[in-house]
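Hi R.,

Quick one: here's the Protein arginine N-methyltransferase sequence you asked about.
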Amino acid sequence: MESYNPSEDTGPAFCIGHHEHNRLVTVTPRVIQNVHESNYDMMTVPITTSYFHSRVLGLLSSYLANLQSPTYDVVGTMATTQNTRPVVVPPLSKADSYLTPNDATSQLVGVTSSWIDLCSPDPLIADLSRQVLMLEVAYAAFCGIGYLLIPGPKLHHGALHSEGVIYYARAIQDALNLGPYIQFHIWQQMVDNPELEIDTMGDLAPLARAEYLQPDEGAPPKVDPFGSWDAWDSIRKTCKYHTRLFVALSLPKQLPSLFVQSRWHSEPVRLLTIDGSTFLKNQKGYPVLSKSHQGLIAKMMRLRTAPWIILCGVGPIPGLENIEDPDTHQASLSGSDYPSLSQAGKKHYDPTPHLSYIRNLQQRQPPRTAIERFGVGYQDYLQAPLQPLTVNLESITYEVFEKDPIKYEWYEKAIYKALRDWADQKKATSHPDGKVIVAVVGAGRGPLVTRALKASADAGVDIDMWAVEKNQNAFVLLQRHNDTIWDGKVTLVQSDMRSWKGPLVRQQEDSEPQGSMCHTHVDIIVSELLGSFADNELSPECLDGVNDVINPVHGISIPASYSAHFTPVSAPKLHADVVHQTVSNPAAPETPYVVMLHAIDFLSTMDTPAAGESSNPNNRDRASTPSASFSTTEFPTPFVQTAWSFSHPNRHIPPQSPMQSTISNAHNVRQTRLTFPSQNRGVCHGLAGYFETVLYGDVELSTNPVTMDAKSASMISWFPIYFPLKTPLSVPENGEIVATMYRQTDDRKVWYEWMVEVYALEPTPASTKPTPVSYARVGSPSVESLKSKESVTKQTLRTGYRRVRVGMSDLHSSIKDGCLM
Ligand SMILES: C[S@@+](CC[C@H](N)C(=O)[O-])C[C@H]1O[C@@H](n2cnc3c(N)ncnc32)[C@H](O)[C@@H]1O
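And here's the predicted structure, written out as tokens:
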């Protein structure tokens, strides 16, 4: 492995911008230069002016003055047939926008008007708002603006809640078509907090006519932790997971629970806006962010595409004042360059303390971990799994495996322990001269052979070393290594392991010097044929092929067993990628992919939200009141369950039928049906799969996020697997996700089938409210505990509820891309 110096790893770079609600300037290259000199990377700019705002208000008021009150028509509708005589906003004029195309435009984030209300229940207001948005988007596109920040949907209109989100979404769909080169960022709050939805002077929302509103019943509006995410979900669904549609997330002073944070972390958040009021003051009076804010920012910044940070309401950019020049609207670049007298009196006056803090936070980001460095460019990137049985790997692929800092160490440890136990227990070997016969099957370029020789030397146990490999190209390297590093100690066999008859040794009782040779057994067979889902690269089928070669009394396989694990996930980015691939490849949604999962949210977790968390506005910041099992910055632990397992040597392979010409593989079929409780509402896009393996004794490898740190932290050889769903399924709060999965075979190939059902839990008359069940103790069952699976299943059943199925996926099958045996 290349040497790595963490101090040279600068961590993620922050791109920081400045937002001012009412910027009254034409942004020229000179202004941008000023922005950069102040240490900002970019700035926002409103598309239209307050003059335009007044013009639209004037238009509306004169229109309303001449309009009769809306009434129901004969068919009982009010919104669709009456009063549809449109009010038309005339095109923009010079005074309506300060924006003008110039060299600075590409460095700007345009902001559309926040005073419109696309969700208004009054069709007049909604239509006027839509026209304003369209005019702004069209002009921004004309000017060459690449990024737009669009204030999110207004969710509360009296007693109506979230009713207009679909109208908002429909308008965004039009906007996406109108600005074909613009990236759209929907500016969302983290939670739906009605108290934060305040109308300001000049907003169109309060102008909605009473006839279209529903009387407010006086019930106090509640904070809905997932309400804002719900609105975003409707918008992106309506826009079919558009590739240019993103989230701009506003960080509140009080962060919501880690469940809500982890949901947003899985969404395409490309802008993080932080208001000056979100900062705390440290002892010296400087603005700082809380530990939980720092934790969330650190996580966001490690995403494949790190969001830009936009500071709002933190004072002007030094040297750039909002002094409107009536003729040119050019920014005044003087005056505030100079601090006031009292400021000048301070020794280290910092005109941009919020910016300095964020720059400092950037420098304090921890260096990337081994897996992060290894996975650069691979985060959330769909890859077809390897088929090393049918395809010969390239040297570079082996080279990548061999960089793993853990896997080979652990194999060496396992071989060492197996050899020591063999010697200590004085077990008879398969070799006439007493050496332990060790064979690496599927040796590749030979790293496990090197490790086995080292383990033998360290354990002081003599071995007869064999290496079997079917890749003729890798075999050339094995021959070379035998000459150069292994002193010719290794017997090399170029063969498919399934047709290998075992080691050839000279019979000892044979007195002739050139005595006869015979096949014997292998005492310890070492292989590494595992895929991301354990058995998906056909390790079971390959090792069945050498089953009879293993010493029938004491024979050991390293690995001794392996198991496949999975859990349902929300993975919007992966879903969007699969949908786009489906255009050219109809099998795309029925393919399991290898992916370095990052922007995903686990829908079933081991930490249960505190009672009433979803609806209690006083219980929003779990981060500030951590429970014993709840960290302030770590996202909840997923509930990962075991699908099935395989062990070797397999003493139970059924005898082959003499009636069949092909070898039956029926004993390697598996099926499972597992129930996952869903604590919060969400969308299931697929299943994330992992594996665990017992190499020997207590030496284990794991990619399962629940156990990997304890079993094989920092291992980088395997990314997880992702089983997508063609159509995402909505998941209710306190519901259940049931996944049924098969490993199928027709004796020529192996494939997987999977389907997901979603259930809501309805309390039966005896009970009143579903109590969330904690799965913490159920954990991720080991292969051993699988034997007592019944007890696990029992623990996950909830009493007092009736399951009502609310969603069901297709039965997906990867048969077309099955793994050839
Ligand atoms: C994942 S690589 C592991 C290589 C090496 N042992 C290591 O750990 O770096 C699996 C190797 O097994 C070989 N292989 C797979 N199926 C085989 C079979 N049926 N017979 C022989 N070799 C096989 C492949 O060619 C490949 O070299």
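The radius of gyration is 32 Å.

Cheers,
M.
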